[in-house]
Amino acid sequence: MGILINENTRVAVQGITGREASKVTREMLDYGTKVVAGVTPGKGGQEVHGVPVYDSLSQALEAHPAINAVLTYVPPLAVKDAVMEALHYNIPFINIITERVPMLDAAQIHAYARLRRTRIVGPTSVGVIHPQARVKLGPIGGVNVDRVYQPGPVGVISKSGGMTTETSWIIRQAGFGISTAMGIGGDFIKGGNFVDLVPMFFNDPQTEAIVIFGEPGGGDEEALAEYVMQHGLQKPIIAFISGRFVDHMPQGVQFGHAGAVVERGMGSPAVKMAALRKAGVLVAEVQHEVGALLQEVLA
Q1: Domain 1-126 maps to which CATH number in 3.40.630.30, 3.40.50.720, 3.40.50.620, 2.60.40.10?
Q2: Does domain 148-299 have CATH number 3.40.50.920?
Q3: Which residues of the chain fall short of a pLDDT of 70?
Q4: pLDDT of residue 218
Q5: pLDDT for position 257
Q6: 3-state secondary structure of 274
Q7: Helix (H), strand (E) at residue 53
Q8: Active site residue 257
Q9: Residue 259 has what pLDDT?
Q10: Helix (H) or strand (E) holding 106
Q11: H or E segment to which residue 183 belongs
Q12: How far is Cα 62 from Cα 34, in angstroms, rounded to an integer?
């Protein structure tokens, strides 16, 4: 049983005729993902790797009513309109890969998504993968997916795209596979955070432990710690918080992702690590310790 995606997932790719979206569509198809339609206004009637292209999502849904996931791969200023169309048609899951989405647009997207009860991962997501069903959205895993992503009992939620796969590789080296892995993006405003997603892994029978990759800035990790304190630790959670050098740098400076800002003592790695430890989460001092901690809790 996958988180957000499974063997029944049928995908429409918004912006499929673009260079990156076309490349990723090929990778998804090769892996086994059922990409049934693409959408690019003005390009209707074309095909991309055998996938029919439509001018609008409404046309794609008319031809392929089984579509239940949308991968958004359009320019930043076009994301709001594209996602709003998907929300209008009650698509249950939307994965936004696009970076540099204006903050106001992201806020409006996610406010409307909550009203429509639609799950969004992103913007700036690297995608979602469920190895057991051989389905993935986005560029996660690249062209050699099986080198890192094998089925197993560990769920991964990462604020960094590249570190989603690096974390999964450490898990693989420790002798475990992945239930579902996802890169949720590092923006201030994003569709799914740790508190939104960890309960889904708690309820997933395939997942026996959860690994999160956190970063400086924002309050996602602290919010997760508070959630665990209130609701209990139903499965082991192992966390690694990157960027500990930030604790020794001037506050109010952005490091890397848009959300990686530490200000007035909030969002620092030290604070995040302390909060998670207090809640009973196992916190790795360095990333490669994640594997050893998994071997302890899953022995």
Answers
A1: 3.40.50.720
A2: no
A3: 244-266
A4: 83
A5: 46
A6: helix
A7: strand 51-54
A8: yes
A9: 46
A10: helix 103-116
A11: strand 178-183
A12: 17
